[in-house]
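Figure-free illustration: sequence to structure, shown twice.
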Amino acid sequence: MSESQSSYQQVVKTMSLFGGVQVFNIAITLVRSKMMALLLGLSGMGIAGLFNSTLGLIAALTNFGLMTSSVKSISAAASDQDETAHTVAVLKKLIWFTGILGMCCTIFFSPWISRLAFGNTDYSWPLIWISIALLLTQLTNGHLAVLQGLRKLNHLAKANLAGSFFGLLVTIPLYYLYGTAAIVPAIILAAACALFFSWFYSRKIKVKQVKVTNLEAIESGKSMLRLGFSLSFIGLLTTLSAYLVQIFISHSGGLQQVGLYNAGSAIINTYVGLVFSAMSMDYFPRLAAVSESNDKVREIVKQQALMVVLIIMPVIIVFLAFAPLIVRILFSADFMPIVSFISLGMLGMLFKAASWSMGYILIAKGDSKLFIKTSIFFNSVFLINNVAAYHFYGLEGVGFSFLVNFVIHFICVLWLCQKKYEFRFSVEFYRIFGYCVLFCLFGFLASKFTDGFLKYSLLAVILCLSVAFSFYELDKKTGFKQIIIDKLKKNDR
């Protein structure tokens, strides 16, 4: 087996592991979203969305990006047990500092946050209670970062699975019994479940215990904090731009429109975006470990981009084909206005797949200044385009804005990586990428047919061809068809 084929198989192996996790998470999220839509309604979904966006904004402001920067530091130190132990000890101290900081900021600024998000101070006390979830989530991130940095992927997968499942079990009964009054307790309990299981599985990892003082943690963690601060700032920009879009929609169209926007964004960024989450679990640690070698970085990024494009393309066509049914299953008939929104946004996901793979180069290289500059630009474009699109064309306009934003991001990140790191995709990648774009475009056009029989006949053909194409190209890279045949023969003996 060639080294290249082995590397492609590693991507598939990780994808199969975390793909299974993400499928389970999709099911969990599906049930949660469906129950929230039925039990809370559009307004309740809008309130929950604003609470979660507020938490995300404050977390991005106060967590110093430690979830990502610590993975890089732990991955780099993994070959030295003493260095690994020291890095983990420093991380644990910093996680507590940043978690408490986020909690205190939420409590202190709760009246102003409530007025900004909801137009009054009625939600000040709920925000104070929600600050507990902010601390719990940051502690959870610390445990997960250790598992990811040390590439303990089985434990990481189990922690995510158990946290999601039990978080669902404890929250849905609350929504059923208390409706919108249960939103705050549900958020806190879900965060507590995630923390328990992340702690449970991280303690299974044998890392030597090292004591560090608060001053030592700050001094030793400077490089982690420096990169983390940049990532935190970038995360803040991303969350802030999305938050401001929701605020604009809230004031222009009301909480029901916010609920629709959040539902559409969840389908585009969360459900389909789970493919990226599944792949990033092993991708970033591998990339960080070879960040000093441009040749190795280029090879890993090319492989990752090719794999994610081939895997996500049939998924996009499925969502294009069955968008109305998916919306009804995930939410309810009240959410049907988002069908055009998600169909347009889905077209951009292929471009996001490629730019997502390249974007990790800047993080792995620790190029903080360039990363900040590009993030300011991209988030400004995101905010301006989405606000303008909603103002003139409503939610459908926002869907088209998503597509435009993803294309702009792909072009700009590709240009930056070529200029800064001499990165280029191969002719083979562009050939495969071009075919994938055509499949998705044909799927989108077919979805617009009014004749039901013709529409679904064409979509079925396009879907079958896209799956066959992806399978053929993936098999050329990984040889997994032969692996499956060998395993079946082995089981028959």
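We now fold a second protein in the same way, so the two outputs can be compared directly.
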Amino acid sequence: MKGKAMPRKIRIGMIGCGGNAHEHGRRLAQIPEAEIVAICDVSTEALEAFKRTIPGCENIPTYNDYTKMLKEVEMDAIEISTPHTLHYEQIMAGLEHGLHVLCEKPMVCTVKHAKKVVQAARESKKHMMISYQRHFIGPYVYAHNVIKSNQIGAPHFVASWQGQNWMFVTKQWRGDPALSGGGQLNDSGSHMIDAVLWITDLQPVEVFAYVDNRGAKVDAVSAISVKFAGGATGNISIVGDSCGPRGKVYEEILIWCRNGQLIIRENNLFRRDGDAEPYLVPPEGLPKTKDPDRAFIDLILGEAPNEVPPECGLKVIQLTEAAWESAASGKPVRIRKVR
């Protein structure tokens, strides 16, 4: 009797091979059901570095033009790690070729493009997922589940901040609006906006913001006040001109609910029930953490739902665009509900 045939591996093409793509590549190399079959980058040096450092990629084909790669290589999916303003056309091209797509944050840089991606993903019947990893990190998943199950009542106020020594990257492509589509709010700050909206499931209806570029061509510091549907309010503060090791992110999210409180601080989760003192939820009490690449492969295999669909990217850019508009005009800006 013959043994059961092994399922074919999910064939992945990488668009963008810089430092962030290396993280995705190393994780994919550890997933038995996945295989990187081609890579693309405008930099030959980046392609060679990727091939040298990612196991199993030594002899795979390389491209400087992703459209050529999509035409010539048989693939099931692509992962995108390129400058932000390139995401839209690359996502759309992947979906048009019948491929599943995992894209780095932010999904896209305009609400107009976000709506088109949402529609294209629905019509393609393929999975489009954003690499917002907090959707898979234990404390954040725990907080999301507590709110969703109404264990401590509905949120009525959120205070969140993120600090990062980020200004050095403004000398690179992130400092060029034509490639970055915006500054820190559109970069690491995108994670914070997504986390607040996803955990609380609150719908922003009005935003007032102050923004400071700190001498750069893009925003570096943002102070945002938000009014949500149902009466909840909150603050989101993004500080790109911060102290600390280069690139390291510090953040905190505090959520006041009707019958308790949740605090996420440096990947620790504190919970308050009623008037009792807050307590640290031990690691064994938190959901298991996994990474976006494992989640993406599980999604394609039909073993997990899409925890970060393109609708999440639409919500993030809606709030981000409103903050930029408010800062420019000095007035509150209304946000329409995502449909």
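Summary for the second example: The two ends are 53 Å apart (CA to CA).
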